[in-house]
Amino acid sequence: QKEVEQNSGPLSVPEGAIASLNCTYSDRVSQSFFWYRQYSGKSPELIMSIYSNGDKEDGRFTAQLNKASQYVSLLIRDSQPSDSATYLCAVSRRVGYKLSFGAGTTVTVRA
Amino acid sequence: DAGVTQSPTHLIKTRGQQVTLRCSPKSGHDTVSWYQQALGQGPQFIFQYYEEEERQRGNFPDRFSGHQFPNYSSELNVNALLLGDSALYLCASSLEKTPGHIEAFFGQGTRLTVV
Predict the structure, then answer these.
(1) Out of A42, A95, A103, whose CB is closest to B41?
(2) Do B102 and A32 touch (CB under 8 A)?
(3) Would you say B64 and B77 are in contact if contact means Cβ atoms under 8 Å apart?
(4) C-beta atoms of A51 and B56 within 8 A
């Protein structure tokens, strides 16, 4: 079983719609959860972090964490063409510990 | 405020050669982690350096080694290069004693091609 699994893409959404990305993890003691955005040919850019159960909103992004279900998600509201990228879910067992990444979900926002 | 910088940005090496990649962490950061990202995959953790010591190591062979200098910059060395070592190598920096939670920020990466 992979440490971090993401829903397979690619995910294509119309401009203005909501993109929903899902991620599950296998290490029950994981404490820190991150979403990174990676444009083609570029390095990952941190867009959201979440550490406790529930929702966390930052602009058009909402991260949701459910530790009991070992599930974390990212919603992108009012999707824009500039949101077209690969989104990586990363999980860490404890503060400052290594990040375990999923394979990423590629999102395409069509105008 | 300078972010994480890596050099070189691109590199082509021949099988069997050795390579050294360099990373300068974000200003004020003291911890450096290295990741390997193959095409179409998520980054894979290689190792982490803190206080000039390797603190954690992923599932990579001993051909991969590193170093951290007193100014917190770091090097990744790969010996006896294999074709399968072709990948994007990413450096991430963080601050160990961050109040609250620690976040890692990535450099632009070094694209290594082994021929």
Answers:
(1) A103
(2) yes
(3) yes
(4) no
Taking only the tens place, the pLDDT of each residue in A99-111 is 999 999 999 999 8
Instruction: For residue B44, give every residue at least 6 positions away whose Cβ sits within 8 Å of its Cβ, in sequence order, or none.
Output: A101, B35, B36, B37, B38, B58, B59, B60
Q: What is the pLDDT of residues B62-71, one digit of tens each?
A: 999 999 999 9
pLDDT above 70 coverage of chain A, percent: 100
pLDDT in tens, A44-77: 999 999 999 999 999 999 999 999 999 999 999 9
Count interface pairs A-B at CB distance under 8 A.
57
A16-55 residues touching B, CB cutoff 8 A: 32, 34, 36, 42-46, 49, 51
- Give the residue on B whose Cα is nearest the Cα of A52: B101
Show Cβ contacts of residue A11 under 8 Å, excluding neighbours closer than 6 positions. Answer: A19, A21, A105, A106, A107, A108
Q: Are A55 and A63 in contact (CB under 8 A)?
A: yes
Element (DSSP H or E) covering residue A86: strand A85-92
What are the structure tokens assigned to A35, written together?
């979403």
Find, among A111, A103, A95, the residue nearest to A49 by Cα. A95
| CB contacts, 8 Å: B41 with chain A | 103-104
What are phi and psi for residue B25, nearest 5 degrees? -70, 165
